[in-house]
From TrEMBL:
One of its GO terms (molecular function) is zinc ion binding. This is SWIM-type domain-containing protein. It comes from the Eukaryota. Pfam families: DBD_Tnp_Mut, MULE, SWIM. PANTHER family: POLYPROTEIN, PUTATIVE-RELATED, SWIM-TYPE DOMAIN-CONTAINING PROTEIN. Keywords: Metal-binding, Zinc, Zinc-finger. Residues 439-480 form the SWIM-type domain. It comes from Gossypium hirsutum (Upland cotton).
Length: 590
């Protein structure tokens, strides 16, 4: 049927197949179809153009669903000019056209649908029709948004059943159980973080684009190799101060349940007041820092100057007071306004030199990397967003666990590379020993004091990065000790393996949910029915405020007041009488 031609006697599996074939032919050959008679046993149609003799008649064969063409009359004399839209190109037809493409690419845009249909069939359909078809296609493939919220409680139970020790809780609001918040943290993530990751947590959020919108909040960490390690995530109807307090409260509970003592943590965030206050309340003993990626993007957006961004990063990585002040002076020289703007962010919250906590050299969080995991799923129902994260976590844990089996070094690859560079430079330094733990290390450029007992060097690299600097390595090797033994434990291959030692198990498909467990009938009976939030995304393409060039060039009209003869206001808004009254009372003031 690729050429969309019909012959008498041609057969089709059933009436639906025949109707689809005739519709495809009408669209591809650019003629409108008028159905005279159409039911389950017969079909008679003709060309909708006045005077065109084309006719087709088909019937159902006895005792079989097969449809066959009985007669085909005339040829088209209408010119086939139905290029601008087509009555047969319904939303359902577009859905059937794009379904496979949507499965392969969730971000298949309406404008791409328009382009592909025009390229293949030569017709133009309205943008809104393509948008509706995409929405209906996504719902057919992945289920509706409403169904996703309704199934959340059962889905959370499946997470906890298949991954024991995991936390998956849905929170509702109001008497009608409207969705408010969802918190999920897999047991493997919690245990892996506590036993094998750096004690650094990045916080951030990303807007979802499904029918009822919402925001995905996340907490991520770094593994021993500096890789992304998702710790927990949540979905909230609205991102505000209360939602961040709730999210961090749930995170605190998850960590507290799985550790005897809460670790000393450092939080990296965009520095918004709601996030800072929430961390201060729920993790009072932790340290907080601004994410440098966010800070550098902000100054770039504010001042459109790449040199300022470069200098800010240099200042952030400075390890001496002199170097920091030099870079800040250069920023002042390049842009006094930028220097004043930076003052709203205390150096103790972003500069490596002044930060009181431990960041191991990580000035930026890895939230953006985590957000990229769900970029393709942001338009899908809420359960599909969670499934996307779960599937990615499952594959990443397995891949990294397998990869680490081939590592035979003491430290993870990135730390191992740094250590080798350090040892190589250390061989050129001269070491003078003061006592059992203190040394003076002399290089061509400078002299530094190293205390191997306190894991400290006057260059401050050892304290800031957690791995001995070249001066420290020279001092350690001079007394025949193992340099690797002085690196922080969180950088070792053993810690990396510990982080991914627990498995994240698959969650059954929806059709199998009632097949697992001893009492399947109670699973749905006890589950709470969750309704979607009241707020929903308005239909159609979001409106944009467009600037008209003609309006910009047009001379502005100046209004004139007929009462006081001043410009800038009308007679109805004139305050001349009021001002006169005030002036009359001025001399009476004591």
């Amino acid at each position: 049927m690729e050429d969309h031609t019909f012959v008498v006697g041609q057969e089709f599996p059933d009436v639906k197949a025949f109707r689809n074939a005739i519709k495809e032919a009408a669209i591809a050959q650019h003629f409108e179809l008028r159905i005279v008679k159409g039911d389950l046993i017969r079909y008679f149609a003709k060309c909708a153009s006045e005077g065109c003799p084309w006719r087709i008649r088909a019937v159902k064969l006895p005792s079989a669903p097969t449809f066959t063409i009985r007669s085909l009359e005339g040829t088209h004399t209408c010119g086939k000019n139905a290029q601008n839209g087509h009555h047969q190109a319904s939303v359902d037809w577009i859905v059937s056209f794009i379904e496979e493409r949507l499965r392969d690419n969730i971000n298949y845009k309406p404008k791409d649908i328009l382009h592909d249909i025009h390229k293949q069939y030569g017709i133009i359909i309205p943008y809104k029709q393509a948008w509706r078809a995409k929405e209906r296609g996504l719902a057919a493939i992945y289920g509706s948004s409403e169904e996703g919220y309704c199934m959340l409680p059962t889905f959370c139970e499946q997470i906890k059943k298949t991954n024991p020790g995991s936390i998956a809780e849905v929170f509702t609001t109001g008497a009608d159980n409207r969705f408010q918040r969802l918190f999920i943290s897999f047991h493997a993530s919690i245990c892996g973080f506590l036993s094998g990751c750096l004690p650094i947590v990045g916080l951030g959020g990303i807007q979802l684009k499904s029918k009822y919108l919402g925001t995905l909040l996340s907490a991520t960490a770094f593994d021993a190799d500096g890789g992304l390690f998702p710790l927990a995530f949540g979905i909230v109807d609205t991102e505000n101060d209360d939602s961040w307090i709730w999210f961090l409260s749930e995170l605190h509970k998850a960590l507290e349940m799985n550790s005897e003592k809460m670790p000393q943590l450092t939080f990296l965030s965009d520095g918004q007041k709601g996030t800072l206050d929430a961390v201060r309340r729920k993790f009072p003993n932790s340290c907080q820092a601004f994410c440098m990626r966010y800070l550098s993007e902000s100054i770039s957006k504010e001042f459109k100057n790449s040199r300022l961004v470069h200098l800010l990063w240099k200042a952030a990585y400075a390890t001496t007071t002199t170097a920091f002040k030099e870079k800040m002076a250069e920023i002042e020289e390049a842009s006094p306004e930028a220097a004043k703007w930076i003052q709203q962010f205390p150096p103790s919250r972003w500069a490596l030199l002044y930060f009181e906590g431990t960041r191991y050299g990580h000035l930026s969080s890895n939230i953006e990397e985590f957000n990229r995991w769900i970029l393709d799923a942001r338009e899908l129902p809420i359960i599909q967003v969670v499934e996307q994260i779960h599937n990615k976590l499952m594959s990443e844990f397995e891949d990294r666990r397998t990869r680490s089996h081939s590592w035979f070094s003491v430290l993870a690859p990135s730390a191992e590379t740094r250590m080798r560079e350090v040892i190589s430079r250390a061989s050129t330094y001269q070491v003078l020993r003061s006592d059992e733990v203190e040394f003076e290390v002399i290089s061509a450029e400078r002299s530094d004091i190293v205390n191997i007992g306190k894991h400290a060097c006057s260059c401050r690299d050892w304290q800031l990065y957690g791995i001995p600097c070249a001066h420290a390595a020279a001092a350690i090797m001079s007394c025949r000790k193992d340099v690797y033994a002085f690196a922080e434990k969180c950088f070792t291959v053993a810690s990396y393996c510990e982080a991914y030692s627990e498995e994240i198990y698959p969650i059954p498909q929806k059709i199998d949910w009632n097949k697992f467990g001893e009492a399947p009938s109670t699973l749905n009976e006890d589950a709470q029915v969750v309704r979607p939030p009241k707020f929903r995304r308005p239909p159609g393409r979001p409106e944009k405020k467009r600037i008209c060039v003609e309006e910009l060039n047009r001379e502005k009209h100046t209004v004139h007041c007929s009462r006081c003869n001043q410009t800038g206001h009308y007679k109805t808004t004139c305050k001349a009488d009021i001002m006169k009254g005030i002036e009359q009372f001025e001399p009476c003031r004591i």
